[in-house]
């Protein structure tokens, strides 16, 4: 087949058109041979089709979809040829056929789907919209043995087909994926994703556990440098890009299918060869996997897709230096946004009976002591999610501020709080850590105002942060775990009075100028009304109490006592829409982003499809055992 590809690549445009009849005849003969009783001939026919389609796409540079169809099979018989081809493919994928035949069949379909950089410009895919292979792919995911062997390619194919002209016309794969309610198939889909992300986490952990020198610099170099070797084109970029396909697959399932949410918290104990989902148990009854010795304790714990995804996020969120890594982190945040908007996903994450230990990785930084990564205590996944988001806030305050990622991060926090307020869920969380992180972020924006305000709208981010505080002030009594937590919130606000005063002054300054950010600056000044009311109400009371006691420096407990005694005389303004947010929508805001991500997945997939190397001896053994 490599000879065939090489010969086609030598041809110029005119020669290719002149050989059209010969190519049509070869294509037709290959299709006919797919029905042959000898499997080995079927394998060779599939291999030849892969080479033929791949090389014709390459020759036409993917720019002329109709030209590809004409040169391969001719317009007159294209409908008939493609129907026969796809019927055979469905038959091979669903029938009792050897593993190598199914694998080659999936490779052929991937060659078809990745023919053009932009999947929506691939005219051949119209035939896949008519002759739908959705059920065949789902059947592979249903069966544990087939899923272990072919699951990744099946999920990859589904993901690419879902993205074919997704906003232009009715795509049957979108419709079918959105209404799929087969629990076995959905679990299978989830387990393929879990397996890929777990492999990445294991790899990171293995390098992380290597002996490290005590110095901060060598720790940083060893811990992050091993995983993320260089900028674009390095090992790090390849490893991150390799996960784009499964992340897009996870995004599509979470975004499109409400039923998939139920699989997020299904306990999975063997990710390399996922067990039948019907055998998975709840989190209190993990099934030990005796066949694989646990490399790291955390992997011996009960796990599920959310646990694995949170751990994966904690690794990739450490690095936002290259475009590839920023895109990967953005995709993680969009998935988290969809999850945090879903009522059922939130109920799972806040369920106190569904607790997990999750290893979140922390970035070594100069301004904090380097502690070894520790698994969180067994806690609801909502607490782990908040830990993850707090860590992101604390570790990305830099001159080149990743503004969009911060807005997504704060948006996820806001959605989780809205759920808690709406359902009156009191999560037993160390809220002080979140408040401290948000205050630190506001202090950073203030300190770097001159530099940042020239490049980006820092007032929009500050407004989102202040509104989270307003949500706690106005509704905190309905979802904070105790009255003491509410007192601590007031203590933190009063303690940071100078910072909030400076923030108000900055916003006021920009709101009176005719700059680009006037509107957001004005909204920020208005949003600070209750925070300033609290500070202005309690500060004189604390000063008066100190004077009466003859003290100069109060303790935290003394201030909290003054706060408790003076709630009654505090007047706050009821602010509207604090618990409202704009529901996530892919179009129009993120459509271009996903087009670029899918293009990246198509390019990487095309480069990695290997249909030329076949172990003939192994195939013959398979066929003899089948017959």
TrEMBL record:
Lineage per the UniProt record: Eukaryota, Metazoa, Ecdysozoa, Arthropoda, Hexapoda
Residue ranges of every copy of the Armadillo-like helical domain listed in the record: 373-609
Swiss-Prot/TrEMBL keywords: Membrane, Transmembrane, Transmembrane helix
Annotated spans, Disordered: 267-288
Keyword Membrane: yes
One GO term describing the cellular component: membrane
Protein name, as recorded: Armadillo-like helical domain-containing protein
SMART domains: DUF1741
Location within or outside the cell: Membrane
């Amino acid at each position: 087949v490599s000879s065939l590809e090489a010969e086609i690549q030598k041809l110029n445009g005119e020669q290719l058109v002149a050989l059209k009849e010969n190519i049509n005849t070869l294509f037709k003969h290959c299709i006919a041979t797919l029905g042959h009783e000898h499997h080995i001939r079927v394998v060779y026919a599939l291999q030849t089709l892969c080479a033929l389609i791949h090389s014709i796409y390459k020759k036409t540079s993917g720019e002329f979809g109709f030209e590809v169809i004409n040169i391969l099979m001719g317009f007159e018989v294209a409908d008939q040829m493609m129907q026969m081809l796809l019927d055979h493919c469905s038959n091979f994928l669903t029938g009792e056929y050897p593993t190598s035949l199914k694998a080659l069949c999936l490779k052929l379909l991937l060659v078809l789907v990745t023919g053009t950089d932009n999947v929506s410009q691939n005219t051949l895919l119209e035939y896949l919209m008519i002759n739908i292979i959705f059920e065949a792919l789902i059947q592979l995911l249903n069966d544990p043995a087939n899923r272990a062997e072919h699951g990744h390619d099946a999920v990859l194919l589904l993901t690419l087909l879902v993205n074919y002209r997704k906003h232009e016309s009715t795509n049957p794969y979108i419709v079918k994926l959105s209404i799929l309610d087969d629990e076995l198939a959905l679990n299978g889909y989830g387990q393929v994703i879990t397996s890929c992300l777990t492999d990445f986490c294991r790899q990171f952990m293995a390098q992380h556990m290597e002996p490290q020198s005590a110095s901060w610099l060598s720790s940083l170099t060893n811990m992050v440098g091993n995983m993320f070797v260089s900028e674009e084109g390095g090992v790090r970029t390849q490893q991150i890009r390799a996960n784009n396909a499964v992340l897009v697959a996870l995004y599509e399932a979470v975004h499109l299918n409400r039923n998939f949410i139920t699989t997020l918290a299904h306990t999975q104990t063997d990710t390399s060869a996922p067990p039948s989902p019907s055998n998975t148990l709840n989190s209190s009854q993990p099934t030990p996997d005796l066949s694989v010795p646990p490399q790291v304790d955390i992997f011996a714990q009960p796990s599920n897709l959310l646990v694995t995804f949170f751990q994966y996020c904690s690794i990739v969120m450490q690095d936002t230096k290259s475009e590839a890594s920023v895109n990967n982190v953005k995709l993680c945040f969009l998935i988290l946004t969809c999850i945090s908007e879903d009522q059922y996903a939130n109920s799972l994450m806040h369920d106190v009976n569904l607790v997990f230990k999750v290893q979140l990785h922390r970035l070594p930084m100069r301004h904090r002591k380097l502690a070894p990564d520790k698994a969180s205590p067994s806690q609801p996944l909502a607490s782990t999610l908040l830990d993850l988001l707090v860590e992101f806030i604390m570790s990305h305050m830099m001159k080149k501020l990743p503004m969009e990622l911060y807005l997504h991060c704060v948006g996820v926090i806001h959605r989780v709080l809205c759920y808690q307020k709406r359902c009156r869920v009191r999560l037993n969380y160390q809220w002080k850590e979140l408040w401290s992180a948000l205050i630190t972020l506001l202090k950073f924006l203030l300190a770097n105002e001159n530099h940042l305000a020239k490049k980006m709208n820092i007032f929009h981010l500050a407004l989102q942060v202040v509104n989270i505080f307003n949500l706690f002030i106005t509704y905190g009594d309905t979802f904070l775990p105790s009255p003491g937590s509410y007192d601590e919130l007031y203590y933190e606000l009063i303690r940071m009075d100078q910072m909030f005063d400076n923030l108000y002054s900055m916003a006021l300054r920009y709101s009176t100028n005719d700059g680009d950010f006037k509107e957001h600056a004005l909204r920020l000044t208005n949003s600070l009304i209750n925070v300033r009311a609290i500070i202005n109400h309690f500060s004189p009371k604390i000063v008066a109490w100190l004077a009466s006691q003859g003290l100069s420096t109060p303790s935290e407990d003394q201030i909290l006592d003054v706060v408790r005694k003076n709630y009654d005389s505090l007047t706050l303004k009821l602010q509207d829409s604090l618990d409202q947010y704009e529901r996530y929508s892919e179009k129009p805001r993120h459509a271009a982003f996903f087009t670029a991500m899918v293009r990246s997945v198509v390019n990487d997939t095309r480069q990695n499809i290997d249909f030329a190397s076949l172990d003939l001896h192994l195939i013959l053994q398979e066929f003899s055992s089948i017959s």
